[in-house]
Amino acid sequence: MSLGYLLRRILTFFVVMWAATTLIFFLPKLAPGRDPIQERMAMLNATGSVSSADISEMVAAYQKNFGLDQPLYLQYIRYLGNMATLDFNYSLAQYPAKVIDLIAVSLPWTVGLLTMTTLISFTLGSLLGGILAWPRAPGWLKYLLPPLVTFSAVPYYLLGIIFMHVFAYTLKIFPLGGGSSVGVMPSYTVEYALDIAKHAVLPAMSIVTAAVGFWTLAMRGMTVTTMGEDYMILAEAKGLPATRIFFWYALRNALLPQTTALALSLGTLVSGALLVEIIFRFPGMGTLLYRSVSTFDYFAIYGVVFIVIVGICFATLIIDLLYPVLDPRIRYHRA
Questions:
Q1: Between residues 112 and 294, which one has the greater pLDDT?
Q2: Residue 39 scores a pLDDT above 80
Q3: pLDDT 10s digits, 285-295
Q4: What is the mean pLDDT of residues 53-66?
Q5: 90 DSSP β-pair partners
Q6: How many helices (H) and strands (E) are present in the chain, helices listed first?
Q7: Neighbouring residues of 133: CB distance < 8 A, sequence distance ≥ 6
């Protein structure tokens, strides 16, 4: 891998980051009819914490404190500086809580859920898709194809609603939602870990069920394409074992475009997972983003979306740099 290519990829990473962060800065500003500070004051007034006479004075104080009384271009410059230093300011809806503290609580839940579901669905789907395309595969496997096609077309959140109704509401096998049982104190114990796992089963099942179908169909198509390649015919002519041909020739060569699809679909996967978190009230980034959008909390929206964008861009960069490991024929330099 050449240094020039690495520098170009890193530069592209930062350009995409800048474009995305700029977009998420202006979109909430363009939404009409919503003022998070006015809504915050109205809520405090309803609870008796602030009198009606003091609202105007407190609105001005809030705007000055958060820099919302400045021109838009100054707000944008300040915003870029805050994003660069991960200083997302205070939450407007949950003041005086800082956005970075809210993210620190929610992020591990989302990372754990996404990591587990992505590894399971990608590995299982790729292996199953390769086997379905293999001529010597067991005949009964072909009956898995229709349900896999069906599940791959169903959105994550819709599967989540179905699973919640069947397994939580009707059969009462799993909890309806949440990250842990009410009254259970967080601790580094096996009981607490099992309780979290029980609450994560339905959200994870919703994502994995749909994603496995997608990766299976994609891998099946890629493997069928590799079956007619010259190196496959040569391997069979040499009399190599069928398992070696499958794993080292068919599956390995089909994994490269499959990995490309993984990098391209990370955004869809993350957005679908965030919707699933909202449905199951899973205490991750999706639920935090939903609450922030509901209360029009500028700074919380900025922080959550920025972290999600950084994660997607960084994962895409890592996958791109791993290509030579999957296929030694790939070299990132000019011939």
A1: 112
A2: no
A3: 888 988 888 87
A4: 66
A5: 98
A6: 15, 0
A7: 219, 220, 221, 223, 224, 227, 250
With H, G, I as helix, E, B as strand and everything else as coil, classify residue 305.
helix
Query: How far, in Å, CA of 223 to CA of 219, rounded?
Result: 6
3-state secondary structure of 98: strand
**pTM for the full predicted model:** 0.80
Yes or no: say if 203 and 160 are a contact pair by the CB < 8 Å rule.
yes
Q: 32-36, 145-149, 166-170, 240-244 — which one is most confidently predicted on average?
A: 166-170
Residues 35, 39: Cα–Cα separation, whole Å:
6
Are 160 and 202 spatial neighbours (Cβ–Cβ below 8 Å)?
A: yes
Segment 106-129 shows an average pLDDT of 90
- The phi-psi region of residue 297 (left if phi > 0; otherwise alpha if psi is between -120 and 50; otherwise beta) is beta
Check the CA dihedral 202-100-27-17 and report its sign.
Answer: negative
pLDDT in tens, 71-103: 888 888 888 888 888 888 888 777 778 889 999
**Residue 52 gets which letter from DSSP?**
G
- Considering Cα of 332, then 5, then 20, then 101, what sign does the dihedral take? positive
Taking alpha carbons only, the member of 151, 149, 150 closest to residue 217 is 149
Domains of the chain: 108-296 (1.10.3720.10)
Helix (H, G, I), strand (E, B) or coil at 90: strand
